[in-house]
């Protein structure tokens, strides 16, 4: 043991190269002038002799005083094993109290900041605001009368606080053996175990098998099965339980893939695959190989590579070492491989470990075109057969783990599966969970929507399947009941009325939804995300009839979320309207775009808020809101759910809490909606909801050390006053060991015969003792010292004592890291208890952001506030296409549209190809949708009725997966529209009937148009090139159907057509297809032949019509019936 000296070390021996943690309780030198004569410090008692050296921990000083002066006793020695001295008494007869002097807050920023000089050199006490509260024996400092008055006022409270801190100090460190007790409490290694214990080598467990023995004359013996290393056995045990998962295993400072997983990782990540066995079943074809193929990457690149594998549609499992080297060396299993466990599983729908998620995509592909991160579970019944009348009952539950949103629905669908398609296109899931078998139609629909990278989801979707036993419904009900009952039982406060209401709400779900919910709970439990279902407040039914229905065809045809050219967000309606500042505000606006309101009262509230923000530009409330939104850099919605999952990092937590405190603190004066500064109900309620969490945020933040949280320093994350007891004890234990290490330098110097020894750190190895080569000290190095490294000039050693103390310190550090993590988890639990209040605040901020985005759009030139009526009408003056207008360099030609249930409710639109017919009808539908979102619209004036749905049948494509031709697809979609539309729906039909013969096509188009106008009475826009349909308006005497055309000018005898893009009444009798062929640069010879053939066909048709007219006139002359006369008149009109 190092001899204990009653004298403090010399000043020369205090200049060490390495610092220790003990600075956090070391007193600082005082700057006050010393008295002229100070009494001598009380001498420390001599240490009792010990047979073996023991390190000496630091000790608190004892302060004494008399009438003349005051000076701290220079106790720079250990309190371990020394005799107690009888304390001196002051003149007042009271025993002097022990003194704990703490450094300033800045002095203990991290571990290992004090030198031996700061521990062993006697220093006068620095009286600061922080350290003065520990002084009990000091006389009151001199002060003026004003200061004395203030001090007398606070004397009682100050004295009470001093006594409390003193009692705490005495309880922890007041006994002579306090440090020894702390170290015994936290100690793992016994001295016997420490001697000769080397550091675990991570490569030992991966040691290659020995080469096969050879027979006589070097001939190899018979080939035997390759012996697996302990780590390979670990890997195979885990891999065989998760054969569908790419396993990445932590091995020392790297993560490794093995076998077929290594080949997969090499392909997806571009890393080197070392050849070896690919199979996991010891196949004879690989018996000549003695190792698995492998690939690896550094530990710090884990999330980067996991994200790339998940985006490539792989299920990824991360296997970690769950014990550290120092704790393993101290345990009974120090000679066994590291214990490893599958700690994380990731798929597209469950990846929440990165706040950015999987949203990063190709350049130009905005978030609107990407998968929303939903995991969708689907099940169906009555899925037997393939008949045209087949109907299935479908249940689904969609979860967005990154935000906590849950959508559920139960509905019946026909053989076209249009209802399923509509929901899939709205939700855009990143992953499917299929419960039981699906019908062929549903299977092919899911395959069609998820199998291609150019689908509506913007990326390929993953599909998982689980079994569905016959008793699944009963099992699901019991499973869900037990799940929520367990949550209520685990609640610290016992079951509450709100928790009982949660269980009641879940029990009200339909059978199909219950099956999906049970399957989702089981599935997400594997990923540690089942807690998302605790938040039933955020369960939303998809089929709530408070929103306009936009089915799958409408979303695609009108390009609501992505364009139909390259399937990116640019050029979509969402891209046009998105002016949000935050990610969570952007997600809320996306929901608004896909779910326009049909509740007039809610719609009026939303558009009134937009109008107030639009008119309030450059006002104080407007500028204040704009400034606060622009300062939010954190995705608060995702951070909150990561807090709930206990996956949040310290910097993320600090950033989220500070952002919420910043914006809520700006509205502290708002106690009610009337004090918000806004007149709109929606704005006032959103602003009033923000400051309600301010007090909770202050409570959480005052416990956090800001600088340490920013640096992700777990050891100093909490403020000292809020630090857990076990963390404080472990820090003191580390400080004690480091002080022993510094004290030991004197003993090491004595063995080498020099005055002092300084520790050095080389290549991360601390507490090395350097000895010069060919120096007298080299010959005095004891044989027990272990050489660690060397250069040409120096040798570096670890002594047995230093090695033992370093191992002890490492144990404490690793225990400290675990204790800090546990304390952080407890803090996350406390914050999670306020999740709903925090989530409501974030939702209010998102609402303000989305409204602010709509207000920015409203300020664009040519946008107007629509007027909403209870009538069924669509009257637009000077309407423009919102996306084309922003993409075009030239001005967009505006057009009018007037539809009403009581007047003209259908327009038959004709005109030349490329004349603008489709843009005209799309602009009308988009303006109606934008209006019911709550936005201003691109028009001079808009008077809109409340539509319940927009149906479209546009474009031409076949469906090879279903074996359907283009014409069959058109008729199926038309059939769904005719079954679903109501008088409050807007129907758009583009060139119906073009996929078959002219006569059949005209007949179908005419019948559908007549049915829509006469029976459904929906607002309708019908585009056609069939001139015969233009006569249909004569059947409707009240003008329910009107003919309009897109105007143009003919030049050069019809060889050139100038498109005017203006809509006028009447019919266009030619489509000018040859002109389009000329624009498409079809060879001129082909166009000339087509022109000749077109003229011949027109002449032939005219001759047929004249012949037919002649026969009709003859018949009329013979019979003279009124019906024959009407036919003659109709034939003449056609000519």
UniProtKB/TrEMBL annotation:
SMART domains: MUTSac (SM00534), MUTSd (SM00533). The keyword Nucleotide-binding applies. Residues 144-154 have a biased composition (Acidic residues). Residues 985-1001 form the DNA mismatch repair proteins mutS family domain. Residues 112-121 have a biased composition (Polar residues). Residues 1-162, 190-226 are annotated as: Disordered. Residues 48-58 have a biased composition (Pro residues). Gene3D superfamilies: 1.10.1420.10, DNA repair protein MutS, domain I, MutS, connector domain, P-loop containing nucleotide triphosphate hydrolases. Residues 94-108 have a biased composition (Basic and acidic residues). Its main location: nucleus. Residues 1-47 have a biased composition (Low complexity). It is found in: Nucleus. The keyword DNA-binding applies. It comes from the Eukaryota. Keywords: ATP-binding, DNA damage, DNA repair, DNA-binding, Nucleotide-binding, Nucleus. Belongs to the DNA mismatch repair MutS family. MSH3 subfamily. NCBIfam families: PRK05399.1 (NF003810). Component of the post-replicative DNA mismatch repair system (MMR). This is MutS protein homolog 3. It comes from Didymella pomorum. The gene is MSH3.
């Amino acid at each position: 043991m190092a001899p204990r000296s009653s004298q403090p070390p010399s000043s020369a021996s205090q200049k060490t190269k390495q610092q220790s943690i003990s600075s956090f309780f070391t007193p600082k030198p005082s700057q006050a002038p010393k008295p002229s004569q100070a009494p001598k410090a009380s001498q420390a008692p001599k240490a009792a002799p010990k047979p073996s050296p023991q390190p000496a921990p630091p000790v608190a000083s004892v302060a004494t005083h008399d009438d003349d002066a005051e000076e701290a006793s220079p106790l720079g020695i250990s309190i371990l094993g020394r005799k107690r001295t009888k304390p001196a008494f002051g003149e007042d007869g009271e025993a002097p109290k022990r003194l704990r002097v703490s450094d300033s807050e800045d002095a203990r920023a991290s571990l290992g900041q004090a030198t031996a000089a700061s521990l062993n050199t006697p220093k006068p006490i620095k009286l600061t605001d922080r350290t003065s509260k520990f002084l009990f024996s000091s006389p009151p400092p001199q002060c003026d009368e004003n200061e004395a008055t203030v001090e007398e006022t606070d004397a009682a409270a100050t004295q009470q606080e001093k006594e409390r801190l003193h009692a705490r100090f005495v309880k922890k460190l007041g006994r002579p053996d306090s440090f020894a007790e702390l170290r015994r409490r936290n100690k793992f290694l016994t001295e016997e175990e420490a001697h000769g214990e080397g550091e675990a080598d991570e490569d030992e467990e991966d040691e290659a098998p020995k080469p096969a023995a050879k027979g006589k004359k070097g001939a190899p013996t018979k080939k035997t099965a390759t012996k697996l290393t302990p780590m390979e056995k670990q890997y195979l045990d885990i891999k065989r339980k998760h054969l569908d998962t790419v396993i990445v295993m932590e091995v020392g400072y790297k993560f490794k893939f093995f076998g077929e997983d290594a080949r997969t990782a090499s392909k997806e990540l571009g890393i080197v695959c070392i050849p070896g066995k690919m199979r996991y079943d010891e196949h004879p074809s690989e018996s000549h190989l003695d190792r698995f193929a492998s690939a690896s990457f550094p530990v710090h690149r884990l999330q980067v590579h996991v994200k790339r594998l998940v985006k490539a549609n792989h299920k990824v499992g991360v296997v970690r070492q769950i014990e550290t080297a120092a704790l393993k060396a101290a345990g009974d299993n120090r000679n066994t491989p590291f214990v490893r466990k599958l700690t994380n599983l990731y798929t597209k729908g469950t990846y929440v470990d990165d706040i950015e998620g999987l949203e990063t995509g190709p350049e130009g592909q905005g978030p609107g075109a990407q998968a929303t991160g939903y995991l969708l579970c689907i099940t169906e019944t009555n899925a037997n057969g393939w008949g045209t009348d087949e109907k299935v009952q479908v249940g689904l539950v969609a979860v967005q783990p990154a935000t906590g949103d849950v959508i559920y629905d139960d509905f019946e669908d026909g053989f076209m599966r249009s209802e399923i398609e509509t929901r899939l296109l709205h939700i855009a899931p990143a992953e499917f969970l299929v419960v039981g078998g699906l019908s062929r139609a549903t299977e092919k629909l899911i395959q069609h929507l998820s199998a291609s990278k150019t689908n509506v989801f913007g990326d390929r979707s993953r599909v998982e399947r689980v079994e569905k036993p016959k008793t699944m419904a009963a099992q699901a009900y019991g499973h869900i009941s037990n799940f929520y009952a367990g949550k209520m039982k685990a609640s610290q406060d016992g079951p509450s009325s709100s928790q009982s209401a949660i269980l009641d709400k879940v029990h009200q779900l339909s059978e199909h939804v219950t099956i999906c919910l049970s399957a989702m709970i089981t599935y997400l439990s594997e990923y540690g995300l089942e807690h998302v279902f605790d938040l039933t407040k955020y369960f939303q039914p998809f089929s709530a009839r408070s929103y306009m229905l936009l089915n799958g065809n409408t979303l695609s045809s009108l390009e609501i979320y992505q364009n139909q050219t390259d399937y990116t967000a640019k050029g979509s309606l969402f891209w046009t309207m998105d002016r949000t500042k935050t990610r969570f505000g952007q997600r809320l606006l996306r929901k608004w775009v896909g779910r326009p309101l049909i509740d007039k009262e809610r719609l009026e509230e939303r558009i009134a808020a937009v109008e107030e923000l639009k008119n309030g530009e450059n006002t104080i409330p407007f500028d204040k809101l704009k400034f606060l939104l622009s300062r939010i850099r954190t995705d608060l919605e995702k951070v909150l759910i990561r807090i709930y999952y206990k996956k949040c990092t310290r910097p993320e937590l600090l950033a989220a809490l500070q952002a919420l405190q910043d914006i809520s603190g700006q509205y502290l004066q708002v106690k009610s909606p009337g004090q918000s500064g806004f007149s709109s109900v929606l704005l006032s309620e959103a602003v009033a909801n923000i400051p309600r969490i301010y007090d909770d945020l202050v409570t959480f933040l005052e416990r956090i050390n800001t600088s340490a949280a920013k640096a992700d320093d777990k050891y100093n994350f909490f403020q000292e006053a809020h630090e857990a007891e076990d963390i404080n004890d472990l820090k003191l234990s580390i400080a004690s060991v480091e002080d022993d290490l510094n004290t030991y330098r004197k003993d090491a110097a004595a063995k080498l015969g020099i005055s002092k020894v300084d520790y050095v750190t080389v290549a991360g190895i601390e507490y090395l003792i350097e000895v010069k080569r060919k120096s007298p000290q080299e010959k005095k190095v004891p044989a027990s010292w272990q050489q660690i490294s060397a250069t040409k000039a120096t040798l570096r050693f670890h002594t047995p004592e230093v090695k033992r103390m370093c191992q002890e310190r490492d144990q404490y550090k690793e225990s400290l890291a675990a204790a800090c993590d546990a304390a952080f988890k407890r803090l996350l639990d406390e914050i999670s208890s306020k999740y709903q209040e925090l989530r409501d605040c974030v939702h209010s901020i998102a609402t303000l952001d989305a409204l602010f985005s709509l207000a920015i759009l409203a300020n664009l030139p040519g946008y107007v506030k629509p007027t909403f009526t209870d009538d069924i009408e669509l009257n637009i003056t000077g309407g423009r296409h919102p996306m084309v207008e922003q993409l075009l360099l030239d001005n967009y030609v505006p057009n009018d549209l007037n539809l009403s249930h009581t007047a003209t409710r259908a327009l038959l639109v004709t005109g030349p190809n490329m004349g603008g017919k489709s843009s005209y009808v799309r602009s009308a539908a988009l303006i109606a949708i934008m209006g019911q979102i709550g936005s201003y619209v691109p028009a001079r004036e808009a008077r809109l009725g409340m539509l319940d749905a927009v149906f479209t049948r546009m474009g031409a494509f076949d469906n090879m997966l279903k074996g359907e031709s283009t014409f069959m697809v058109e008729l199926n979609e038309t059939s769904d529209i005719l079954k679903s539309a109501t008088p409050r729906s807007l129907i758009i039909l583009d060139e119906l009937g073009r996929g078959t013969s002219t006569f059949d096509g005209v007949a179908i188009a005419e019948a559908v148009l007549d049915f829509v106008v006469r029976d459904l009475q929906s607002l309708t826009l019908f585009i056609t090139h069939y001139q015969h349909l233009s006569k249909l308006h004569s059947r409707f005497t009240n003008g329910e159907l009107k003919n309009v055309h897109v105007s143009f000018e003919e030049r050069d005898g019809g060889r050139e057509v100038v498109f005017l893009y203006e809509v006028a009444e009447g019919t266009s009798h030619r489509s000018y297809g040859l002109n389009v062929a000329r624009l498409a640069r079809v060879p001129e010879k082909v166009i000339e032949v087509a022109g000749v053939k077109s003229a011949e066909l027109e002449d032939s048709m005219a001759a047929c019509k004249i012949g037919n007219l002649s026969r009709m006139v003859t018949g009329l002359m013979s019979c003279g019936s009124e019906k024959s006369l009407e036919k003659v008149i109709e034939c003449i009109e056609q000519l």
